[in-house]
Every structure is written in structure tokens, then in C-alpha cells.
Amino acid sequence: MARYGGSTFKIPLFGAPMKKTILIFGLISGILSSIFMMATVPFMDNIGHGNAGLLIGYTGMVLAFLLVFFGIRSYRDNMANGRITFGRAFAIGICITLISCAFYVVTWEIIYFKFMPNFMDNYGNYTIETLKASGASAAAIQAKIQELQKLKILYKNPLYNAAMTFIEPFPVGLLITLLSAAILRRKSPTQPAPSARPVT
Fold it and tell me: Percentage helix, strand, coil, to 5, in the chain?
């Protein structure tokens, strides 16, 4: 809100160009995150739920969230005359992140409840077998079994399931947003190099 000549007017934070950038890059990022999930989750039993699965999963997240960087840069260079503050860059990035995370959550909910209702059973079996192979005590194994049973019940609640799924990609997107905003912020547009003046 600002005043000019006795009148009050609003400076919109999300103008049409900014909304367009957020929507385009958010949708692309979200579609990529959904594709990566659909291409990997059905094969988790073969890939494994351990480090290999985590590496593949988080690599997909990072690739999808690269659209945050490209979205901020596109807005700065094409719609903001080469200038952007950290705050505006962060706002664009975090909105793209939220759209992408929404795609991630919705895709997981569909996969989990419609196509892979035994996912938690398979994950639990993998976890228990890993504990046994590591030489864990019977008490530790029993405690883990009880923990997994409670988790399985909680995951049957779509709201809890969605919340836990959301916090998987969001920290990655937040970090990339912060880094992108810091790297791409620019207070003044780049100026072309001055041409040489002839000596008279």
C-alpha cells in the first residue's frame, strides 16, 4: 500500500506476468515430479526401499525443482527488465514449489490408495528384514514391528498420508528456492558495455 498525491493505491505482489510465470513453471515442475514418481514407485520392490530408492527419489525431486530456478530467471529477464529482489524471487520460487508439491502429493495419494494398498506392508517387511540382517535384538525388532503397525494405521488416513507426503519434497524445494533467489536477485538490469569513442 502506498500514497501518491493524497490518494492511496495498491502495488500488487502477484501481477499477471508473475502469476503466468508461476503457473507455467509450477505446472511443468509438478508434471515432472508426477512422472518421476510414477516411473519409480511401482518398482520400489525391485529398486529397494533403502539408499538406492532414496537416491532415485530425491534425484527426481531435484530435477523437478530446477524449474524453480528457471522460473525465477525467466520472470527476471523477460518480464522484470532484468531486475528482481530476493523477496520477489523467493515468492515466485515458493509458489512454484507449492504447486509442484501438490502434484507430488496427489500422485502419491492415487498410487497408494488405488494401485499400491500393500505398500506399507512391503516397506515394513523390508525394514524388519534389514534389522534382522544387521543383528538387531529381538526386543528392537518387536518395537519396530509395533511402530510400523501404528504407522500403517495412520497412513490409512488420507489427510495424515498427504501431510507426511508433502514434507518429503517441500524441504528440497524450499532449499532450491532460497538458493535460486540468492543467486538470481539483481537490483539493476545489466547494462551493455559502452562503445569506444573515437579520439578527436
Answer: 75, 5, 20
